[in-house]
Amino acid sequence: MKFRETNLQQGAELELAPMIDVVFLLLIFFIVTWKSAKLERDMDISVPAAEETTDQPSTVAEIIVNVRQDGTIIVNGSELSEEDLLAKLNLISQDFPDQAVILRGSSEAQFQNIIKVLDQIKKAGIWNVAFATTKPVKE
After folding, report:
1. How far apart are CA 9 and CA 4, in angstroms?
2. For the segment 22-60, what is each residue's pLDDT rounded down to a tens digit?
3. Are the C-beta atoms of 72 and 78 separated by less than 8 Å?
4. In the CATH hierarchy, which fold is given to the domain comprising 38-131?
5. Alpha-carbon distance 27 to 102, whole Å?
6. How far is CA 47 from the centre of its chain?
7. Is residue 132 within 8 Å of residue 100, measured between CB atoms?
8. Domain extent listing, the chain
9. What is the Cα–Cα distance from 105 to 133, expressed in whole angstroms?
10. Residues 6+ apart with CB under 8 A from 35
């Protein structure tokens, strides 16, 4: 009686090309999201506290406009004048009419500086505006 040898059976091979593709896609995704999150946050701004604030998940397409204490306007890590901000927002609102804008004004900034930025947002025709706040610290 002749028995079949078990070591002659062909084993399953691991395909590396699809796995490498998935790893590179994940790497690209995390680099892009990290870069955009880094540009959106300005550490020199401490937003005001509010009792009725909710933690909203950030979306990819939202624009975050930062207003520092001295009134400088920061968008995507670059300082803009009021005219430059209006031009940038006009271009965005033409392509995306329902564009969301989050206004992060420093709690130490003059109210007039934040109102000037809000005026530029409204002049650009953007209606979807939110103000960033934090929850008050309980002592």
Report:
1. 10
2. 999 999 988 887 766 655 555 555 556 666 655 555 544
3. no
4. Nucleotidyltransferase; domain 5 (3.30.420)
5. 28
6. 16
7. no
8. 38-131
9. 9
10. none
